[in-house]
Design a protein that fits this description.
The protein is an alpha+beta fold. The protein has two domains: about 20-85, no CATH class; about 85-165, Arylsulfatase, C-terminal domain (2-Layer Sandwich). The chain has helices at about 5-10, 20-25, 50-55, 70-75, 150-165; strands at about 85-90, 100-105, 110-115, 130. A four-stranded antiparallel β-sheet has the order 1-2-3-4, covered by helices on one side. A hairpin with a 2-residue loop joins strand 2 and strand 3 (about 110-115). The two termini are about 30 Å apart. About 15% of the residues are buried.
Length: about 170
């Protein structure tokens, strides 16, 4: 069964693609000592941040190294420093052999998705996608081939490479 271009698979791939409808998960936390009821934060928190956060709220230290970061500082200080981008990856699996392997970087405004397959012309970047999430929340308009976004594309590719190198 051949691997399919990502756009063909969008509706039928569940959580296997890099679009926000699959990546984003609502998260609710109640801690009246620190968090105002009804408050909303837009920072890029990840599932790997939950355990460090709960440990800090409980006043405990982790006994093992963790990749995530506690997001308690975000509740204490509206100007707290926080990650500006994150890496997401999906690797080909037997249960979904038509969904291609991909690597993506997402910032608060931009998303770049690199598929580890070549297009029909043999271009290893032929299926890549770039989205401006401020103007295209549904990730419909791929900006990869738009000349006015050439520099942004280069920046996002470098950022992806940096995140991949840090994750080794």
């Amino acid at each position: 069964m051949p691997i399919q271009p990502p756009r063909i698979l969008r509706a039928s791939s569940g959580k296997r693609l890099a679009y926000d409808e699959a990546l984003r998960v609502p998260f609710f936390i109640r801690y009246p000592k620190l968090i105002s009821p009804g408050s909303v934060r837009e920072e890029l928190t990840l599932n790997i941040d939950v355990a460090p956060t709960l440990l800090e709220l409980a006043g405990l230290d982790s006994v093992i190294p963790m990749h995530g970061e506690s997001f308690v500082p975000l509740f204490k200080d509206n100007n707290a420093s926080w990650r500006k981008a994150f890496l997401a990856e999906y690797f080909l699996e037997k249960v979904a052999p038509r969904t291609p392997t991909w690597q993506a970087v997402r910032t608060d405004r931009w998303k770049y998705i690199h598929y580890l397959i070549a297009d029909e012309k043999g271009d290893p970047y032929g299926y890549d996608e770039l989205y401006d999430l401020a103007t295209d929340q549904k990730e419909i308009t791929n900006l990869v081939n738009h000349p006015e976004h050439k520099n942004r594309l280069k920046e996002m590719r470098v950022q992806l490479e940096n995140l991949l190198n840090r994750s080794k």
